[in-house]
C-alpha cells in the first residue's frame, strides 16, 4: 500500500488539498486534550457523534495522537498488523508508550517469542487449579468483615483478591500476596509520595520472584515460564510477569466491583442473576459491554502515512483505543443496557482482538465469576450503604472503576481477629556439611589400656605379656560424620523487600 492510501481500502491523495472527505481537527475546535480531565468527564457518545470513528487528541502537553471511537474502527486497528504496529519504537526511540498499554509491545516473530511462554504457562492453570485458589482467598477476605455487617467491597475484597490469587499462582507464600496487595493499593493512590516508592518496590517483587524461581523452581506459573523452550532472559521474564499482573490485577478488580454495583443498583439484573436467567458467564460479558473496567488504552502506531476513517494519519502517530465509545456504538450493539439483548454476545473489545488478544481471558472469567458468587452467597442481605450517584469513580482516563463500594449486610459469626492475615513465611535455612576431622590419636584413645585400668593393677601387669591388640580401623559411615551445621542464609531480594515494607505498615 502506497502512502496516502486509505486503510479501509479506498484510494486517497497525498495532497491534503485533495482530501475533501477528511475532517480537519480545527473544524471541531482542535484536538481534544485528554490530559485535562478524567474518563468520567468524557461524553463518549457525544464525542463519537461529533467526530465519527476517529478523533484528534492531545495525549499529554505537546503529544498529539488519535482516539479511535467507532466499534468497527477499533476492531480494524486491533486486528490489522500491516498498517498498525504495537511497537512504539518508531514513534519513541526509548520504546515508551504515550499512555497506558495492555499488550506486549512487539510484532511478528519477536511478539510470538515473548507471548507464547505466557500463553503456555497460563494454559496449565485450568479451572480445577484456579477456582480453589480464588475461593480460599475470597473466603478469607469475606470472613474478615462478615461479623462487622459493613464493608468496602473494593478496598477490602475486590482490590486485594487478584493480588492474593496471582501471588499464589506465581509460587510465593501468602505473606507476599498481602505485600503485593499493599503495594498495588499504594500504586493506585493519587499520592505521588506513596505511588512512586510502590512502583519501585513492585519492580523488586518481580525481579526477586524470577531470581528465586531460577534457583527454587516449582509447579507454578513463574517456573513454567522460566522453563519454556523459548528461554526468556531474566529481564524478559520480569517484563512478562509484570505485564500479566498489570493487565490481570486492576481490570479484574474493577470488573468485580462494577459487576457487584450493577447487581446492587439494578433489581432486574439481580433477579435474573440469582434466578439463573442470566448466567455468570453472560453476566460478565454484559458488564463488559455496559460498564467495562477499561475506558481507553494506548496500543498501536501507524506504520505509514495513511487515510483512515476520513482522517489523515501520519507514520508513527499513536492510536488510542476508545473502548467506552466503541461499546456504545449502536452499529454494533442493539438493545442498550437490556441484559437479555446482550446474552451470549461476546464480541466486546475488552479482551482485545487479533494477534494481541488477552491470553488470560478464561483465567479472568473464572476469577471474577468465583469472586462474585462468593460475595453474593456469603454477604446475605447486601445493599448499598450510599446512593449510587454518590459513589466516586477512579480519576483515570484508562480505568473505569470505583474508589470504594460501601455496603451493608447481615452480620454473621464472631468479630474477626486478623482473619485476613496470612501465615508468615517459614524462614529458609541452608545446610552446610562441615569438613571431617582426622581420627583422634594418642594414648587416651587406646581402648585396651582403658579396659585394663577398669580391671585393676593385675590386669595391667598381665597386659604387658600379651601381644598388642590390633588397632581398629577408623570408624566410617554416616553416624560418625560431623553433624550438619545450620547456617542462616543471606536474605534474598524478596525477603529484604518483605522486611522493609513490614516496617512501613
Main pleated sheet: 6 strands, mixed
Beta content comes to 5-15%
**Rg calc:** 32 Å
Q: Alpha-carbon distance between the termini?
A: 58 Å
Helix content: 40-55%
Q: How are the secondary structure elements laid out?
A:
Elements lengths: L4 E2 L25 E2 L10 H8 L2 E7 L2 E6 L2 H9 L4 E2 L22 H16 L3 H19 L4 E3 L1 H5 L1 H11 L3 H15 L3 H24 L5 H6 L7 H32 L1 H8 L5 H11 L5 E7 L3 E3 L2 E3 L4 E5 H4 L12 H4 L18 H18 L4 E2 L21 E3 L21 E3 L14 H9 L1 H7 L21 E3 L5 H12 L1
Parallel strand pairs: 1-8, 2-3, 4-10
Antiparallel strand pairs: 3-4, 5-7, 6-12, 7-10, 8-9, 11-12, 13-14
Helix pairs in contact: 4-6, 4-15, 6-7, 6-10, 7-8, 8-10, 10-11, 10-12, 10-15, 16-17
Description:
The structure is a single chain. Strand 2 (32-33), helix 1 and strand 3 (54-60) form a beta-alpha-beta unit. This protein has helices at residues 44-51, 71-79, 108-123, 127-145, 154-158, 160-170, 174-188, 192-215, 221-226, 234-265, 267-274, 280-290, 323-326, 339-342, 361-378, 447-455, 457-463, 493-504, and strands spanning 5-6, 32-33, 54-60, 63-68, 84-85, 150-152, 296-302, 306-308, 311-313, 318-322, 383-384, 406-408, 430-432, 485-487. It has 18 helices and 14 strands. It has a 6-stranded mixed beta sheet with strand order 2-3-4-10-7-5. 43% of the residues lie in helices and 10% in strands. Helix 7 (174-188) packs antiparallel against helix 8 (192-215) and helix 10 crosses helix 12. By secondary structure, it is of the alpha+beta class.
Amino acid at each position: 500500500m502506497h502512502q496516502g492510501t486509505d486503510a479501509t481500502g479506498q484510494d486517497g491523495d497525498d495532497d491534503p488539498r485533495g482530501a475533501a472527505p477528511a475532517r480537519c481537527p480545527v473544524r471541531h475546535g482542535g484536538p481534544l486534550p485528554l490530559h485535562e480531565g478524567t474518563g468520567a468527564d468524557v461524553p463518549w457518545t457525544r464525542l463519537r457523534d461529533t467526530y465519527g470513528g476517529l478523533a484528534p487528541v492531545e495525549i499529554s502537553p505537546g503529544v498529539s495522537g488519535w482516539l479511535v471511537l467507532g466499534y468497527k474502527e477499533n476492531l480494524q486497528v486491533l486486528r490489522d498488523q500491516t498498517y498498525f504496529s504495537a511497537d512504539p519504537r518508531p514513534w519513541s526511540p526509548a520504546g515508551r508508550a504515550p499512555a497506558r498499554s495492555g499488550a506486549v509491545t512487539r510484532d511478528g516473530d519477536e511478539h510470538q517469542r515473548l507471548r507464547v511462554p505466557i500463553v503456555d504457562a497460563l494454559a496449565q492453570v485450568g479451572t480445577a487449579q484456579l477456582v480453589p485458589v480464588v475461593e480460599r482467598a475470597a473466603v478469607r477476605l469475606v470472613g474478615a468483615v462478615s461479623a462487622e455487617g459493613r464493608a468496602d467491597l473494593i478496598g477490602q475484597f475486590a482490590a486485594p483478591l487478584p493480588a492474593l490469587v496471582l501471588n499464589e499462582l506465581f509460587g510465593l507464600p501468602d505473606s507476599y500476596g498481602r505485600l503485593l496487595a499493599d503495594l498495588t493499593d499504594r500504586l493506585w493512590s493519587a499520592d505521588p509520595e506513596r505511588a512512586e516508592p510502590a512502583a519501585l518496590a513492585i519492580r523488586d517483587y518481580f525481579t526477586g520472584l524470577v531470581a528465586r524461581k531460577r534457583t527454587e523452581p516449582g509447579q507454578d506459573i513463574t517456573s513454567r515460564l522460566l522453563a519454556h523452550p523459548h528461554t526468556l532472559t531474566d529481564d524478559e521474564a520480569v517484563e512478562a510477569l509484570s505485564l500479566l499482573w498489570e493487565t490481570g490485577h486492576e481490570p479484574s478488580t474493577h470488573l468485580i466491583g462494577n459487576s457487584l454495583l450493577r447487581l446492587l443498583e439494578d433489581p432486574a439484573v439481580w433477579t435474573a442473576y440469582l434466578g439463573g436467567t442470566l448466567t455468570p458467564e453472560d453476566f460478565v460479558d454484559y458488564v463488559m459491554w455496559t460498564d467495562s473496567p477499561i475506558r481507553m488504552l494506548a496500543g498501536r502506531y501507524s506504520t505509514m502515512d495513511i487515510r483512515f476513517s476520513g482522517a489523515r494519519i501520519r507514520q508513527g502517530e499513536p492510536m488510542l483505543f476508545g473502548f467506552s465509545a466503541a461499546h456504545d456504538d449502536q452499529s454494533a450493539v442493539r438493545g442498550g443496557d437490556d441484559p437479555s439483548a446482550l446474552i451470549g454476545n461476546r464480541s466486546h473489545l475488552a479482551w482485545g482482538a487479533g494477534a494481541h488478544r488477552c491470553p488470560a481471558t478464561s483465567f479472568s472469567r473464572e476469577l471474577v465469576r468465583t469472586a462474585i458468587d462468593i460475595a453474593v452467597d456469603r454477604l446475605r442481605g447486601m445493599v448499598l450503604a450510599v446512593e449510587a450517584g454518590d459513589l466516586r469513580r477512579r480519576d483515570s482516563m484508562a480505568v473505569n472503576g470505583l474508589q470504594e463500594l460501601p455496603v451493608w449486610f447481615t452480620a454473621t459469626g464472631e468479630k474477626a481477629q486478623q482473619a485476613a492475615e496470612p501465615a508468615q513465611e517459614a524462614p529458609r535455612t541452608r545446610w552446610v556439611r562441615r569438613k571431617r576431622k582426622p581420627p583422634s590419636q594418642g594414648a587416651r584413645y587406646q581402648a585396651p589400656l582403658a579396659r585394663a585400668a577398669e580391671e585393676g593393677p593385675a590386669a595391667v601387669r598381665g597386659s604387658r605379656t600379651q601381644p598388642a591388640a590390633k588397632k581398629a580401623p577408623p570408624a566410617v559411615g554416616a553416624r560418625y560424620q560431623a553433624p550438619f551445621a545450620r547456617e542462616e542464609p543471606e536474605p534474598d531480594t524478596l525477603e529484604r523487600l518483605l522486611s522493609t515494607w513490614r516496617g512501613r505498615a
